[in-house]
Specification:
Strand order of the largest sheet: 5-4-3-8-7-6
Radius of gyration: 49 Å
CATH superfamily of the largest domain: PPM-type phosphatase domain
CATH topology of the largest domain: Phosphatase 2c, domain 1
Strand content: 15-25%
Number of domains: 5
Oligomer: single chain
CATH architecture of the largest domain: 4-Layer Sandwich
Number of helices: 23
């Protein structure tokens, strides 16, 4: 980063104490030229307004522009005066601090210190403000001074002392402004004005972090008040830039906001860069400092990062909730008043608990936690007394348990952010007598002031098994009992009282009273059960219907086993009841469902049988060759393999009174009895309509109206052709059906595709008609989609395979059709209808 340059022609600013200095690098002196970091607001010129009026604008409009221009100039002048006043105040704070250092070192009064500062500045050729910043740096030797030195070393050759001085002035001015500010809003404005604008930043936001993970905007600069109000509170879990910095607990650098989660001002700077870093001290995070650049941001050097970290520490000054007088040396555990309250709280808990306080290193960073207190329920896994733990460091006492399980990282996060942490059944390695053993514990950590309360509940195996047993009994609706035959004492658990619908105050019942609360029809089975257990001394079980006092009947299974004494006599009975009502009713419902399913299957099989008989009666699977008017016709019909898939494929070959031959193939959508009956309707309707002598297109139009108006929501595809034996001309039309295939010599191809919707889709549909001149030896193939349709293959590819198979020479027409069926690649298990028409090679005279 190059050192900021002063604006050319800048005048020296005068402070209230009479000292003079050059303005800060980011300041603008009224009347000077604009620098590369900003533009000077130029008021509108009255002359231009008057000229505008001369050029034709109304006089009132020109006068209004003059007033607006004067107001803009006044606002600009007032803003410059406010900025100059703020800079002067910050500068006076630095000079007063430097004068205090001279008073302490030279043992002189304030007047002599001010005179000495002015003389030293004049001899050094620098301003009073720069000299004051240099004196403070030498006396403080703090982070700001180190940052200025790092920046000077980073700049390299060609950089003079003015660069370090200007940086020190900016940082010290920002520091004095932040420390003197009454709220975080003033801190944000001071940081942007003095330290961030020279870095190219356009806006800054200061967030405070709450223990619940939410963020609150405490101060902002460079953003509008409306934008700040929209982002006043960010709920927990919202992935903003500040939230990411809080989660990572480090510096977050985003080159461009494009493609990232929105944050404050992302609409004003959509491609700008962002840097966010946590603000806090001693490992405790108070909030987040978020800085916005108007343009994409390149990777910044470490010196800039150090500068931003110093600014974040200034933000923590106003965000920190710890009292100002509560300070302690580095590394010492300094519990606040909340720690004392935590001790009383921990002593009142039934769970083992520890009160931890932070342990800081020499640089003020969090290094460990000190065990400040352990309550009376806490037991060390190694058997050490509580007195040996109090005052010790956590990592020293439990190095494995805290280090390897990332528990220490969670403690750091809770202390930094205030968000509680809870974990169930966390495995913690523990070192006992130099042997590493695993301990399972439930952990709960919360922050109270500067102290942490950690509840460390080590899981007891007996309690865990008892809990598992209780859950198993509750889920299985099992109630246990034990009856002492010698003393007469009977023990029931709570689940057994619930099964009986009996209040615990009424007391348990003996096993001998079981028949009195059961259905009378179950008395015999209960008697055999009691004889087996009591008299024969063996385990037994019985299922019965329990009639409760509230009128509810439950199906119960009881299992009991005898317990004998040392001399072999029966001493007690032990067992369990289980509510099997759900299982019983499930079995009843399942039996009814099986009966209904068998009946439904029988009805379905009967319907399929009737549909198949109807289909075979009208469309026999095999049809011998027909010779009609010098035309050889062969048919092959292959029904579906499954009777449940009976379809509506149909064909027809009929000689009309006009001498023409009607050839048709169709396919009704669906399967079953509805498709079979629909096929009959369409086939017969087409036969009747063909007697009118109409052409194929008109026949398809009429047939479409029949399907649309006279059937129950049927749809179908069809192809219809009329062949004239005298001229060998075939006219044809199609309704959503695959086109016929013409085999001529050793070539096979589909006829041109004519337009036409499937039957039943729309009323009064129009269909196109085409004609083909057939020649002796030609073979025409008409078929349904069951011949070519495949689930994983396009129709075009299946048609190509059909054409290649049809080109293969064959003897008779029937052999050609059989070959097409044999080499068909259809896999949909659908009906297939194939009609072959062949023109004899020599037509009889």
């Amino acid at each position: 980063m190059s050192a900021p340059e002063y604006a050319e022609g800048s005048a020296e600013a005068a402070f209230a104490d009479g000292s003079r200095q050059r303005p800060l690098p980011h300041e603008r002196v009224p009347g000077t030229a604009a620098s590369s970091r900003g533009a000077v607001l130029v008021p509108a010129q009255p002359e231009r307004a008057e000229l505008a009026g001369v050029e034709g604008e109304p006089a009132a409009q020109a006068a209004g522009q003059v007033v607006v221009g004067r107001l803009a100039a006044t606002v600009a002048r007032l803003n410059e005066e406010v900025q100059a006043a703020r800079a002067a105040a910050d500068g006076r704070a630095l000079i007063e601090l430097a004068k205090g250092i001279l008073i302490e070192r030279l043992h002189c009064g304030p007047v002599q210190a001010a005179r000495q500062l002015a003389e030293l500045a004049e001899q050094s050729g620098v301003s009073d403000l720069e000299l004051a910043a240099d004196i403070i740096n030498q006396a403080a030797r703090d982070q700001v001074a180190q940052i200025a030195l790092e920046f000077l070393q980073l700049s390299g050759n060609g950089t003079g002392e003015d660069d370090r001085a200007s940086l020190a002035v900016r940082l010290r001015a920002a520091e004095s402004g932040a420390l003197a500010a009454g709220d975080t809003q003033a801190v944000a404005e001071s940081l942007l004005q003095h330290a961030l604008t020279p870095l190219g930043a356009a806006a800054v936001a200061v967030w405070s972090a709450s223990p619940d993970g939410s963020l609150t905007l405490r101060g902002h600069a460079g953003f509008s008040d409306d934008e700040a109000e929209r982002w006043r509170h960010v709920p927990p879990g919202v992935a903003t830039v500040a939230r990411r910095a809080l989660t990572d607990r480090g510096l977050v650098h985003i080159a461009s906001m494009s493609g990232h989660a929105p944050s404050i001002g992302y609409l004003d700077f959509p491609d700008g860069g962002r840097i966010a870093l946590c603000a806090g001290t001693g490992g405790r995070i108070s909030g987040v400092l978020e800085i916005c650049w108007p343009q994409p941001l390149t990777e910044q050097p470490p010196a800039i990062h150090r500068q931003l970290e110093a600014l974040a520490d200034l933000c923590a000054h106003t965000l920190e909730t710890r009292p100002a007088g509560d300070s302690h040396p580095p590394g010492a555990s300094a519990p606040d008043g909340a720690a004392t309250e935590l001790i009383h709280l921990a002593d009142g808990l039934h769970d083992p608990a520890l009160v931890l306080t932070p342990h800081l290193d020499t640089e003020g960073r969090l290094a460990d936690f000190r065990i400040h207190h352990t309550n009376s329920h806490f037991q060390d896994p190694s058997g050490r007394p509580r007195s040996a733990l109090t005052g010790a460091l956590l990592l020293q006492i439990y190095p494995l348990a805290v280090g390897s399980s990332d528990l220490f990282g969670q403690l750091e996060r809770v202390y930094a952010t205030g968000e509680p942490f809870r974990a169930r059944r966390m495995t913690l390695p523990t070192l006992i007598d130099q042997v590493s053993l695993s301990t399972v514990a439930d952990i709960s950590v919360s922050r109270h002031g500067d102290s942490l309360l950690m509840i460390w509940r080590i899981e007891d195996e007996t309690a865990r098994l008892a809990s598992i047993l209780q859950h198993a009994q509750r889920l299985g609706r099992i109630g246990g009992f034990e009856e002492d035959l010698l003393t007469g004492d009977i023990t029931w658990n709570g689940e057994l009282f619930a099964l009986y619908g009996r209040p615990p105050a009424a007391g348990p019942l003996s096993l001998h009273e079981l028949a009195a609360h059961a259905h009378p029809d179950d008395a015999v089975a209960i008697g055999r059960f009691l004889r087996a257990v009591v008299h024969h001394g063996r385990s037994a079980s019985v299922a019965f219907r329990l009639q409760r006092s509230d009128g509810v009947t439950r199906h119960i299974r009881v299992v009991a086993e005898p317990v004998t004494s040392s001399d072999g006599r029966l001493a007690a009975l032990r067992g369990a009841y289980q509510d099997i009502s759900s299982q019983h009713w499930t079995e009843v419902a399942l039996a009814a469902t099986r009966d209904q399913l068998a009946h439904t299957e029988q009805e379905s099989a009967e319907r399929n049988r009737l549909a198949l008989q109807l289909q075979h009666a009208i469309m026999p699977p095999a049809h011998g060759p027909l010779e009609v008017s010098g035309l050889e016709v062969a048919v092959r019909y292959r029904p579906a393999e499954s009777e449940a898939m009976v379809g509506g494929d149909w064909y027809d070959a009929l000689v009309l009174p006009t001498g023409q031959v009607l050839l048709s193939v169709g396919d009704v959508a669906g399967h079953g009895i509805k498709a079979a009956t629909g096929m009959v309707v369409l086939r017969n309707a087409l036969r009747g309509l063909a007697m009118t002598g109409a052409g194929p297109a008109q026949l398809m139009s009429w047939l479409n109206n029949v399907v649309h108006h006279l059937t129950d929501h049927l749809t179908a595809t069809a192809v219809c052709a009329l062949y004239d034996p005298a001229t060998r001309i075939m006219r044809w039309a199609r309704a959503g059906h695959l086109p016929p295939v013409l085999v001529r010599g050793d070539q096979a191809d589909t006829l041109p595709l004519t337009g036409g919707l499937l039957l039943g889709a729309l009323a009064d549909a129009r269909y196109q008609e085409d004609q083909t001149q057939l020649q002796p030896g030609d073979t025409l193939l008409m078929y349904t989609d069951g011949l070519v349709e495949r689930r994983d293959t396009a129709v075009e590819d299946s048609l190509t395979h059909l054409l290649r198979t049809a080109e293969t020479p064959a003897g008779a027409l029937g052999q050609r059709l059989d070959r097409l069926l044999t080499y068909s690649k259809s896999d949909t298990d659908d009906d297939t209808c194939l009609v072959g028409i062949q023109i004899p090679a020599t037509t009889p005279e």
